[in-house]
Fold this protein.
Amino acid sequence: MKPGAVNTAFVLDMQRKLYRWSNAAPEKGFADLFNLVCDRHTLGHAWQRLARNKGSQTPGTDGMTRHKIEQRPGGVTQFLEEIREELRTGIYKPELVRQRLIPKAGKPGRFRPLGIPTLKDRLVQMALKFVLEPIFEADFYPTSFGFRRGRSTHDALAVVQKHLHPTIHGPSPVRFVIEGDIKGCFDAIDHHLLMEQVRRRIGDRKVLRLVLAFLKAGILVEGTVRHPITGTPQGGVLSPLLANVYLTSLDERYGRWTPRPRERLQNAADRRHYDRKRGRPTFQIARYADDFVILVTGTADEAMAERDILATFLMRELRMELSLEKTLITGVADGFDFLGYRIIQTTALRTGHRVGNLYIPKGKVQRLRDAIKARITTYPTGESLTQLIRELNPIILGWRTYYRHATGASREFSKLDWWLSNRVLRWLRKKHRKAAWRTLRRYRVSSETNERKLVWGEGYVRLRSFTTGGTMPYPWRGIMITNGWDGAPEPRGRTHVAASWNALNHLAGLTTPAT
């Protein structure tokens, strides 16, 4: 079977059925899944997904890349058949994971470990993910947004913002926020507890052995092999799904005040109203992978008590440690940081009501400027303006896509456009030291979107603008966000928005995108 002839409809139909069965029967255990993992259509579709990713050219410990596999005798077809045979005969075994240390954006001297499995292991993990994800997706809470189909960081931010807005009953009752921080979350996941949670839904022993084999795979660190007893390596295709399965217990803890799976939004609102009427504090969580905030309706003392209780819960139930020095308790009027935005409850100019607003943090703007300045300053003057613009355009596009929903974004974008234009002009003057302005003026060309607006460009390449496309508030989409398996049409543009967040640190901080 040729990779290009893969029946992707088979995989999508299989996922829809698994999701429908899982959603209809919360206690159901799935016992016959291994054949789906080994199916040629599943493996072929997994290859298609991997092949169009730039990471397919990053070798693991075996040195294999997509191009090398395509150039082998038999090519991709033979490669997939070999993997399928290894899986079916039970001789497949994950190889060592190559580890790299990636600098953390904005934190000089601090690094994040990134695991790079072999391409074969990434393919098998992708096939596993195709089968397992629809089953567990039905059990995930609506307050979880990280690494889930159809959901993005902006959806998590919109939920937090909505709870800071006034309601038909009056102003928002939220007064404080607990900014959660778990020490080394991905590295602290307990394998035994994780497998217990996986077994609640998965009864196929071959699939369970395969998942455990990936968790126990050795890690190659500077020539030394380390065998992990905890954690899922960041960089693995399966790791985000397993982390969500593990952290679902955290969502369950706040299930009294936040919507549960398969539950109406009003039910959670009624429970919060019931507790507030009796003078009890309420706590609402919004989580994106291991980043989470807890909105507190109560006093500062009650928020502090909840932080201590949460630390005990994480240690006892998940064997994780809450960083008390980083888990801050902040008043909503003072503002707090979440997923790259600054969230503050301010007074609306027209109505005088207290509303939640999203702002671009000053530190993010300065980090962007420092990254662009370093790139332009060190860019060789022997290169063409076209090449420089191609280096800058992805940064501009990713940054404006992510922050276009912030209050006052248009003003900040205009400042950045003016500043960036001057930085490019400085580079051109250094490239053409003796040239007069009329010589440099030939690089001022009409913008692609506005003929009257002049931008830097050469040939058919134009420097993008931060202000292009305008700004707009991000809409709150409720809790019933489609995942593509529930029968509702998949929202347009959602993949692009999510990708902009995953690439944000890479674009602005010059680091590898988070997995």
Remarks:
- The first strand starts at residue 97 and ends at 103.
- The CA atoms of residues 259 and 268 lie 5 Å apart.
